[in-house]
Every structure is written in C-alpha cells, then in structure tokens.
Design brief:
heterodimer; A: 135 residues; mainly alpha; 5 helices; elongated; B: 406 residues; 17 helices; globular
C-alpha cells in the first residue's frame, strides 16, 4: 500500500501547483548561476581571482544553469496558466545561457564588464520571478 | 614545537570531521541560506564530539587498545558487527567523496576536471599510507589544514557584523523542514563514526599510555573546537557574501569566493591550499579508519606502527577501500552530493557507534579508576538521546525536504 501510494505520488499527472513549484526551482537555480557568474566576473575585473579559478567557477555556474534547463524541459505545462508561467521564464533562461557564456569567454575587460552588467540585470529579473511565484 | 605537534592528531581528526569536502560545502550552504541561524548546531556538535572523543582517547591511553577492539571483546561479535557495518559503509563512501574533494581542490587551481585528478590522488594517497610515517602524515596535513583559518581573517576583512547574519529560526523563503534537515546534517557531520575510531586508533599508533591522558585531553579540547571554529568561519563568510544576494552555495568554487573577495589572489591561494590539505587529510583518515575497523574486528595485525608486511591484510583493506571509493567516483556522481547523502546515513548509524563507547568507558575491567565520572556519563547519555533523535529524524527529513531542496 505504502509503495503504491509512493508510486502514485511520483507518477500522477502534474497540475499547476506542481508545475509552478518546478518552475520556481528552475528560476532559483538559474538565479544562483547568474549571481555566481556575476560575482566571478566582478572579481576577475578586480584582479582578485586567477584566470584558472575563474574558468572553474564559470564552468560550475554553467553546469548549474544546464541542470536548470534540463529540469525546465523535462515537464510540459498542464494548462494555460502553466503555459503563461513557462513563457515568462523561458526567455530569461535563454538570455542567462547567452550572458553566462559571453561573460566566461569575454575577450577583454569591456566585454567582461558588459557581461557582468547583463548577469546582474538577469539575476534581478529572476529575483522578480521568484518574488512573484515562490511561496 | 614538540608540544605543538603533539596536538596534531586531534587537529587532523577534527579537520577530517568538521571540514572535509561535504562539511566545507554544507557549512557554506547553511550560511548562504540560513545565515548563522544554525551556528548553534556546530556548538552542540563540538561539545558532543569532545565528550565521546575524550572517552575514546582515555580508553586507548589507559588500556593501550583501540575502542573498536574493546567493543568487540566487551559486547560480543554481533554488536560489533552491527557497529562495523554501519560505520564501514559510511566511511568508504566518504573516502570516495574525499578523493573527489581533493580533485575538486586541484581543479580550482588548475581548471582541469576533478575526475582526471582522481586516479593520481588515489595513487598518491595509497603511497602516503603505505610509505610515510603516521606522525609525518598527521603533522603535515593536520597543520596545513589549519590554513583554512584564512576564512576567519576573510570574515573580519568583509566587515559584516554577526547581528546582520542571525535570524531566530529559518529566514524568509526557507521553512522549518529544511532548517531541521540542515541541523541534522551538520550535527551528524560533527560526530561522524570514523572520527572516534581514527582518534582512538591513532592514540595506539602514537603509543599513548596513562601518562598521556593530558595530551589526549589537550588534543580533544583544542583540536575539535578548532575544527568547529573553521566550520563556523566557512558558514560566516558564506553568509556574509551570498545571503544578501539570495543565492545558495553548492560548489567548492563558490565556497572559496569569500576568501578571494576579502583577500584577493593570496587569500584564494591559501583557501585552495586549505581545501587540499583538509580533504587529503580526511581521505587519509577515512582510508585508515576503513583498515582499522575491519582489522580490529577480525583480530588482524593493524596499523602503521608495524611494517606493511606485518600488517598485510590491514593494508589490503585500505587499498580495497581506496579502489572502491575511486569506483564510486567513476560513476560520475558529484563528490559533494555523495557526502551529503553519507552524512544523512551517518546520522542513522550514530547510535551504533556511540552507545558501545559509553559502555566500554564505564567498564572498570579496562579502565580501572579512570572510568567515566558522573559528569561524563550525564553528558554521554544526554548526547546519546540527541543522537537517537537525529538518527530517527534523518531519513524522513531527507524525503520531506527533497534533500534540503525545500
């Protein structure tokens, strides 16, 4: 009985609250990745971290973002409200991937500064999303 | 200098217990998410491990035998087997995670993937345990691990007052379930079973006797609070940098970031050196504990005070432990996640470790007039109750909070 209950809980179709919870987790992970990328870029500009450390830190942030994207893609929206939620988060995620990649591979300080600025803006937008939907 | 080095065993044991790879990140994550609301758990953990490590050190110094050996003799092979099974699984998995942790520390310095470092780290670990004297290992890695004190310096340099980081209970956005999940994980990390087995076996390796009881106590009451202080510094610096951003921490690079922000490249380099020494020290501790517990249970020759050929089965178990750890890592499981799981399983195994120690420490047949006094017994029983509650709560909390994810 216990196993059957557990199996039902895992296999039952997602509803809006479950989808919303997943999207909040995705936004949380993406927010953390953007903040980590921003911090790393800032310290690189200030000459406080080595290039090798910065590369590892950007890689860690990129992995976290990839995990968030995987989670985002693993579940379809069960209704219109959920689809609206997805449509709000999707461009933010795509922008975060681009911004993090550009910042990590910035060829000079100006590009690095621009990347840091973009990641800061995106972290703010993820924050807004989380404030709106996280309980 | 000799006096300073005489506390190296306690420091190395405590560093393995409080700032191994799982604890480094768990303390930083707790700081980022809860500020210093969970600092009390570190304090409770430090007192608890001091109580039981003092008993273990006293048992070994007076009887000249390690605790696990006496548990088997005093409580019989069945109880000792339950103790062995519970602690061995946790210890071997932790050993794998520590080898991965050394790889992660090297990755921070070189940007080469930790998995490529794993075979080399495992080989160097094996050579060190095979060839290098116990006292050299504990002095080098115990004392180098102290470079993590850079996080204490970094905290003061960051200039954030503890009042800004403290909340009564979980802060907004977190719930009581995750709060208690982290509390149990941090508590279990302070009292991991291999700490007491390593400490008491190390006491035998160092040939402590009755006249070393003071040394044993200095090791316990200096080493473990120092380990707790380093763990607290990781929590504080992470809280100071990441909590205002609302960002959580789950990688070693994030954990090192506050040292870089506060102290620049020098701070970062010292932090990475500290991570390397602490994780390598913890890898040594867990590898040796694997050999100690199995050899002591089966009555084999053991230890590094004998030539390897005289304790061949002990060294074989150590090698098998290292290879098993490497095999676990090659499944590509994240070493940090691995220790987070083992911490929770460790919580479940804690009563099996600490009850027998309490029983042995009260046996006049082994300890004569050095059995536990009333104060040690009151604290011992109180902690046994806490350990039991943590053991019962660990798995339900893990499921309810989805491993602290909320």
């Amino acid at each position: 009985m216990l196993w059957a209950g557990f199996a039902y809980n895992v296999a039952k179709p997602a509803d809006f609250p479950a989808y919303e919870r997943t999207m909040v987790q995705v936004a949380g992970s993406a927010h953390d990745a953007a903040q980590t990328g921003r911090l790393t870029g800032e310290q690189e500009l200030a000459g406080k971290v080595t290039v090798l450390f910065a590369r590892t830190s950007f890689d860690d942030a990129a992995k976290a973002l990839a995990g968030a994207q995987k989670k985002f893609a693993s579940q379809g929206p069960p209704d219109d409200r959920s689809a609206a939620l997805r449509d709000r988060l999707s461009p933010l995620l795509a922008a975060a991937v681009v911004a993090l990649g550009d910042t990590a591979e910035a060829p000079d300080d100006a590009a690095l500064r621009a990347g840091v600025q973009r990641l800061d803006e995106l972290a703010g937008q993820f924050d807004d999303f989380l404030s709106a939907y996280a309980q | 200098m000799k006096r300073l080095l005489s506390v190296a065993l306690g420091i190395l044991t405590a560093i393995g217990g409080f700032v191994d790879i799982g604890d480094i990140v768990a303390n930083a994550e707790a700081g980022a998410r809860f500020g210093i609301a969970l600092a009390w758990v570190l304090l409770v953990g430090v007192v608890g491990i001091c109580v039981y490590a003092e008993m273990s050190g006293r048992v070994s110094a007076v009887s000249g035998r390690p605790v696990f050996d006496l548990v088997r003799e005093r409580l019989g092979p069945r109880v000792a087997l339950a103790n062995l099974a519970g602690s061995l699984l946790v210890t071997v998995l932790t050993l794998g995670a520590e080898i991965g942790g050394v790889g992660l520390a090297l990755q921070l310095a070189t940007s080469v993937s930790y998995l490529l470092w794993v075979p080399l780290v495992a080989f160097v670990l094996w050579v060190a345990l095979w060839r290098v004297k116990f006292s050299v290992l504990e002095n080098v890695f115990g004392l180098t691990g102290l470079t993590l004190v850079v996080f204490v310096v970094a905290y003061f340099k960051l200039g954030v007052s503890p009042g800004q980081l403290w909340h009564p209970g979980p802060p907004p956005g977190e719930d009581w379930g995750t709060y208690w999940f982290f509390a149990v994980a941090l508590f279990a990390s302070a009292l991991t079973p291999y700490e007491v087995f390593f400490f008491s076996s190390g006491a035998v390796e160092e040939r402590w006797s009755r006249k070393d009881l003071v040394t044993s106590r200095v090791n316990v009451f200096l080493g473990f609070p120092l380990g707790g202080l380093l763990a607290f510094a990781l929590m504080l610096t992470s809280a100071a940098v990441f909590q205002p951003l609302g960002a959580s921490v789950d990688t070693l690079s994030q954990t090192a970031m506050p040292a870089a922000i506060a102290l620049g490249k020098i701070g970062l380099a010292v932090a990475i050196l500290g991570f390397f020494a602490a994780t390598f020290g913890a890898a040594m501790e867990t590898a040796l504990s694997t050999g100690y517990t199995v050899a002591q249970y089966l009555g084999w020759n053991w230890g590094k005070l004998r030539r390897p050929r005289e304790a061949a089965r002990f060294h074989t178990v150590v090698i098998v432990g290292i290879l098993t750890g490497v095999a676990v890592l090659f499944t590509t499981i994240d070493p940090i996640q691995l220790t987070e799981y083992t911490l929770l399983f460790s919580a479940v195994a804690l009563p099996l470790t600490y009850l027998p120690i309490l029983v042995v420490a009260n046996d006049r047949g082994y300890l004569g007039d050095r059995v536990n006094g009333r104060f040690a017994n009151v604290l011992g029983v109180a902690y046994l109750i806490v350990v039991l509650i943590a053991a019962i709560a660990a798995i339900p909390l893990m499921i309810i909070t989805r491993m602290g994810g909320g």
